[in-house]
Amino acid sequence: MEILVCVKRVPTVGGAITLTADRRAIDTKASGFAISPHEECAVEEAVRLAERLGGSVTVATLGPAAAEEQLRACLALGASGAVLIETEPGLEVGPIATAAALHAVAAGGRFDLVLLGNEASDTGDYQVGIRLAHLLGWPAATGIKALSVDDAGISASASRTYRGVLETFALELPCVVTVKEGINLPRYPSLPGRLRAKRAAITRVPDPLGVSGGAVASGGTAEPARDVRMTSLRVPDARKKQAVVLGQGAGAVPALVDVLVELGVVS
Description:
The chain has 267 residues and is α/β, with parallel strands linked by helices. It has one domain: HUPs (Rossmann fold). The chain is 26% helix and 27% strand. The protein is globular.
């Protein structure tokens, strides 16, 4: 079974974000980079399927040369191949261009399954998986928390919970599935895995679809590759924590009741 996992280089989740003086980039001296937690689970799910059914896992990303770091991290977890669709450093690429660029990789290989994270942790577009499936003409399921593939590698079953209701989809392969954090517990890379990843060759595709400027084909029509243009970055203001002393002992009870009524806990 041949599986493609699409990942993205993003600032480390939970890390402090510091911007450069021109407010157009993240200061890498203060911030680290990784792949999104959803994508970590997508890599783990792909490796588990390949271990059970045989085959290989290829990871692909659209980004600067520095994204090689994230691809090697995926190789250390068990992926067997990696593709870097290289863009200019600092270039902001939206979901339309991202899906088109990844389509070139997915369509160029004989993949049975394409996995993505449900959304990237930096932009949260929720679009790339759906757009990629549309370009490929494959069925898709999103927000998946449980995935299984039959032993013959012909069909897949994908489940998610939506508004308290369990939904299960039967998909014929090839298909596209976006997974959510919690579908599995990603493994830690082993020392042999790290050493193997360090020596592994990474296939580089130098901006084949004009993502850095120009047009790409989507559904038979030309669309601008630069579907997003970054003007400046801003770090959101930290939420202020405020504590209010309601009183002491029994004297605080009326104020506490008022708060509970305001919150709708009691009436």
